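Students often ask why we bother encoding 3D structure as a string. The short answer is that it lets us treat folding as translation between two languages. Here is a chain of 352 residues written in the first language.
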Amino acid sequence: MRLRSSDRVLVRLPSWLGDLVACEPVVRALSRHVRPEQGGALSLSAPGHLLSVFDGRFPSARRVGTAHAEWRGHDVALLFTGSFRSAFAAWRAGIPERVGWDRDARGPLLTLGVRPARERGGVPFGLGIAGRWPRILPRPVAAGARELVSLVGVPVAETRPCLRSTEEARLRASRRLERGPFVLVNAGGRPGSAKAAPPELLVRLVSAIHRRSGVRPVVVAGPGEEERARALAGELGPPATSLVDPVADLPELVALCEEAALVVTPDSGPRHVAAATGAPILCLTGPTDPRHSSDSFPATHVARALVPCGPCHREVCPLQGPDAHRCMLAIDDGQAVGAALALLRDPKPTRS
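And here it is in the second language, the structure alphabet:
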């Protein structure tokens, strides 16, 4: 099939912040392709709080929920999630054309399904362990989204995600910030998550960056992670501060990333928000397979340690004692701090 400019298009975006941001170039291409003056319409479906990261973007797009009742009346559904539920919802809503990944028994519910590539079980070059066959080949979400829309005739010429803060979010952020440059530190992470940066690692790295650059740390975290951020700011000591009273929402996070001299973050959603604003980033990655985010940009330095057990992509580290969370704790301080200082010295890239 070929998507017409007059089609009413539903886009089911991922329910993870980083994956949703990675799909921004595809949404941008669709917003240009679908023409409201010709009867076309573009609807974006995802958890509502995540869609707020697009505040100020895509003014002609309508935001809808994830229930099938809100999907009725569309001509085409583009499903960037891999869940059975999203394919079933599109089918139940009676959308004539349903495009997505043919996996997990979704095939019969799609009119155009694409089977994702799978690993054969060998050890990928530069990685420590073999994939569990027949695991779907790890790849950036953005690449998969571009592949799906290319099948319906929509090219994606600009592949880098782009986020811009609204004036209201910039004002809220500026009221809470002191004057002068700052390093934005993401202390967030679910309790016990192996993908969150250990506090002791953040203290070591951020303290060294502040000591050698003089740039003050500003700590942020998500809802429910306030104590983690306060504790980190306390361990860092003055002039470090935490912005968790209240927690910065996604539009304000965009504004903070725009203003930051550097963002220090684990490989989580805020990393992708920061990248989409053009902020320099020191990314601390542990169990995450780097192929999921291999489309990093020049102003990003990914710090990771090669360990025999990784990247395992597990949410909780199964190891105990001195080996626990080694993929993060074994990150080389000197290399990470040196990369951060180099990013601080370089002028920020032009944010078009």
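Translate back mentally: The domain at 168-345 is CATH 3.40.50.2000 (Rossmann fold). Keep this in mind for the problem set.
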